[in-house]
Amino acid sequence: MEPFTGYWGKLPAHGDFLRAGFPEDVVSRLDRWICAQLAAAARRHGERFETLWHAAPAWRFTLRDGVLHPACAVSGVWTPSVDSAGRCFPFVFGILHDPASAQFRALPVFEAAIRRAIERTQPIHVLDEAISRAEGMPIPPAAPVQDVWWCSGQAGGGTIHGALPAGNAFDWLIGGMSDNGVMPVMDASTATAVQALPFTTRDGA
Predict the structure, then answer these.
(1) Which among 195, 24, 97 has a CA at the least distance from the CA of 105?
(2) d(Cα 192, Cα 165) in Å, to the nearest integer?
(3) Residues 167-196: what's their mean pLDDT?
(4) Does 93 reside within a domain?
(5) Which InterPro entries match (predicted)?
């Protein structure tokens, strides 16, 4: 299969959810996971939640087939964001691709475009144009990897091994740090894989 891109989430220039490219299965799974974990994190952190959110780094990820899509692996970027009303919600970009291929080395250029859209309050058409330009760039070869989240936006970087981080593992996505200021390497038992979410059919059943 030919890789294709998509996104879903919020940007400061817009008041509602933005979506392009992602199939309904992907959006449905992201929505259930993100909404549940954001609500739980807000309860855990109380008044500190928004401070953590606005300081959180972007994370790159690569997830095997069966996590977000029944047949495609997904490599992408999770970026903390807000809408025009200031409501916290991430912007999630992904490349859907054959599980036997590797696409994660293409992610830095997409991440840079998303960061600009958030920091400069750019409308979605500006980001769409940047994504279209990046899609034409060659992808350096790499061996496939599965179910990993990583970032370089904080001291020491950080890596989470697992599908969809939940509970305390989700806190690392929103800027959790260890006592020495270094993000940890988490294994799949800590970064809970949410595998029980059923896929929808085309008619939403």
Answers:
(1) 97
(2) 5
(3) 55
(4) yes
(5) TagF (IPR017748), TagF_sf (IPR038225)
Structure tokens given for 177: 């740090």
Q: Which of 42, 60, 62 is nearest to 52 (CA)?
A: 42
Average pLDDT score over residue span 165-187: 64
Type of residue at 121: T
Distance between CA atoms of 87 and 1, rounded to whole angstroms? 37
Domain contains 125? yes
Q: Is residue 23 a part of any domain in this protein? A: yes
Distance CA 58, CA 43 (A): 22
Range of the domain at 18: 4-146
**148: β partners:** 62, 161
In a domain, 168, yes or no: no
Q: Please, are residues 133 and 108 in contact by the beta-carbon 8 Å criterion?
A: no
Hey, what amino acid is at 3?
A: P
The partner residues of 185 in beta bridges, in order of sequence, read 159
Pairing of strands 185-186, 18-20: unpaired
Q: Which residue has the tokens 């020495």?
A: 180
Instruction: Tell me the average pLDDT across 130-151.
Output: 87
Q: With 90 as the cut, is the pLDDT of residue 9 above it?
A: yes
Which uninterrupted H or E stretch holds 39? helix 24-45
Q: How far from chain centre, in Å, is Cα 201?
A: 23
